[in-house]
Amino acid sequence: MKIFTDHPNSVGETYGEHFLVATGVGAKMVGAGLACFVHAVFPFWCKSTGSKTILGLHKRIIHGREKFDGKASKGHQKDWCI
Fold it and tell me: What's the pTM?
């Protein structure tokens, strides 16, 4: 069904590739969020886990897709939503 492939194609991925990338990003976000809660209680732990995760995800999601060569279906633009 086209609804499942439009967005992945717009960022140069297949549905399966997008599924793996999105679940990986989600897992990293959950892990970083938990580290932030730990840091809130114990400020001497996980001092930079959240910020390092954000920077790493930004590099992976935004800068990684800037290399996309535009072979998506005609009319598709880069779509940054995850």
Answer: 0.74
Residues near 69 by Cβ (< 8 Å), separated by ≥ 6?
12
Which among 67, 68, 64, 75 is positioned nearest to 11, based on CA atoms? Answer: 68
37, 50, 62 from 31: Cα distances, Å: 10, 9, 20
The answer to whether 8 touches 15, Cβ cutoff 8 Å, is yes
Instruction: Return per-residue pLDDT of the chain as tens, 82 residues.
Output: 899 999 888 888 899 999 999 999 999 999 999 999 999 999 999 999 999 999 999 888 877 666 555 554 544 445 555 4
